[in-house]
Amino acid sequence: LPGIDIAKSQGARYRLGPELEICGYGCSDHYYESDTLLHSFQVLAKLLESPATQDIICDVGMPVLHRNVRYNCRVIFLNKKILLIRPKISLANAGNYRELRWFTPWNKARHVEEYFLPRIIQEVTGQETVPFGDAVLATKDTCLGAEICEELWAPNSPHIEMGLDGVEIFTNSSGSHHVLRKAHTRVDLVNSATAKNGGIYILANQKGCDGDRLYYDGCAMISMNGETVAQGSQFSLDDVEVLVATLDLEDVRSYRAEISSRNLAASKVNPYPRVKVNFALSCSDDVAVPTCMPIQWRHHSPEEEISLGPACWLWDYLRRSKQAGFLLPLSGGIDSSATACIVYSMCHQVCLAVKNGNADVLADARRIVNDETYVPEDPREFCKRIFTTCYMASENSSQDTCNRAKLLAEQIGSYHINLNIDAAVKAIVGIFSMVTGRTPRFSVYGGSSRENLALQNVQARIRMVLAYLFAQLTLWTRGMPGGLLVLGSANVDESLRGYLTKYDCSSADINPIGGISKTDLKNFIQYCIENFQLTALRSIMSAPPTAELEPLVDGQVAQTDEADMGMTYAELSIYGKLRKIAKAGPYSMFCKLINMWKEICTPREVASKVKHFFRTYSVNRHKMTTLTPSYHAENYSPDDNRFDLRPFLYNTTWSWQFRCIDKQVNAL
């Protein structure tokens, strides 16, 4: 309702909201429940009754059961009368989307049936049945047609035929989530829709965390004749954002008039059923009303996207979980430092929103810090209240990483704890020795690889246990109420490779960087040095990534990530994109890489690298089943929950595939 009020106050005559907005797009298997349908209709009844929805066409999204089949629908109404229920035709079912699990597509093109309204709606509208199906609205002055999210991305988008049939305004209600470098694709699709066919295109998208790993990234927009005329924000803490534009329908008509190929196609088009609406979007005396001019779309850089998207996701998660802040094991490396910077960016966004008069953000901040008079003005001061960082040293930790973590904590303002885990590690290893009579040793002291790995794992897992203990009780020791959410900081590349201890500090409540590559994180760190003046990050950037789980040599780190993994992070990103985005198995990956790397590797070396990746990937795939819920930002994410569905017990010899590679190597 607040959005409808704002739209009306700015003179709007048609209001469009995002996909399934009444119940929320992320209901998942709750769509199976009759309660979800019931409560959606209860909300619809409230909207129909509200004075705010009078004299404006309202287009809202909700699930509807028609003849015992569940559809993802737009319900379009005006002045307490439902004009049309338009079911979705093309369902999103790739990647993170599972719409075919809950909904059925409407497969009856240009066909309309009677929908029998439930009594709760009949009592408000006085209607017994309303049109349900693939139709368009004919007002006194124009014609409007709806698309729903995926239909814009489909090869045979409805706007093509609708435009040929005289529809001048296309609407799109979306539930489109953020992926790094994706926003321009959406913008290009919308502008291209009206460039070829003429018309006005308005797109509304969800914005924020909807209770899972995705962040819906707004970017509401209005386009006419191939040019953007209004742009909404991609990331913000505002619960409601309204985009309004005034446009001249005659501009659409004159644009279409000279496109001969369009007009020839239009003369042969199969017409859509039209629902007549006794209402106009324009006024008879609007000649002097100024219209909106085209604008240049401003895209965020990938570094800005990392700074803003995960920060907004964290804020939504924090306020909705009703916790008092975050705890982060801060190692002094790039990954945990990037996570710390994202929390600091979140604090910046909160202070900025409060400064701009966002009362909801202020109320949430006061509740989180348990102070009804508090006003967050300084990001560092707010960070001190809601963010605890913890450096967990062991005898294998260097003084350098300790100093880096401490300096970064000082610069962002977090409440910083230094502790040493050696006593706990010795106690656990001591229990093992007492039971078995054997004491494991690191390989540098003559131990086997099994002993070496087990001793590293113990340290890592102790840190996870301590992180949760301090998250639960740190505020108690400071005389403050509440607990803290534990943040993880494993990046997408090391997750793919399985270069992490199962149930170590990568196990947390949520992970804001779990879908971001090491390369992008390095660029983000550089952005933070320049944008937030965090000079402590310079030494973090220049240090080689290390787990610091093996003994130091002369006080210096001897262990590095890339040496341990047997591959570089840059190579890992390439493997990840080929495996997931290019759908490459071992043999296809080898075939692509012998060309991609022909200047730097022989076919035999490429074969060796590909085999090593697939062996380690498959051996460690089981770790993905327990991966901390991570912000989805990259299309080669190995997230096992919904996005990347694979077995977790593999034949790790890949015997047939590797034989095919060897045969090809020998031929070459």
How would you describe this protein?
Helices cover 42% and strands 15% of the residues. A seven-stranded mixed sheet has the order 14-13-10-9-8-7-15. The chain has a four-stranded mixed sheet with strand order 1-2-3-4. Strand 11 (207-209) and strand 12 form a beta hairpin. The protein is globular. The protein is built from 24 helices and 19 strands. The protein is α/β, with parallel strands linked by helices and 668 residues long. The model has no long low-confidence stretch (mean pLDDT 94). It folds into three domains: 13-276, Carbon-nitrogen hydrolase (Nitrilase/N-carbamoyl-D-aminoacid amidohydrolase, 4-Layer Sandwich); 300-543, HUPs (Rossmann fold); 559-667. It is an enzyme of class 6 (ligase). Its EC number is 6.3.5.1.
In short:
By secondary structure, this protein is an alpha/beta fold. The chain has 24 helices and 19 strands.
Low-confidence region ranges: none
- Examine the coordinates and then state which fold CATH places here, giving the name of the CATH topology of the largest domain: Nitrilase/N-carbamoyl-D-aminoacid amidohydrolase
Sheet of most strands: 7 strands, mixed
- Would you state the CATH class of the largest domain? Alpha Beta
CATH architecture of the largest domain: 4-Layer Sandwich
Class based on secondary structure composition and strand pairing: alpha/beta
CATH level-four homologous superfamily name of the largest domain: Carbon-nitrogen hydrolase
By DSSP, the count of extended strands is 19
- Overall geometry comes to globular
Q: What is the radius of gyration computed over CA atoms, rounded to a whole number of angstroms?
A: 28 Å
EC number: 6.3.5.1
Pathway: Cofactor biosynthesis; NAD(+) biosynthesis; NAD(+) from deamido-NAD(+) (L-Gln route): step 1/1
Subunit structure: Homohexamer.
Enzyme class: ligase
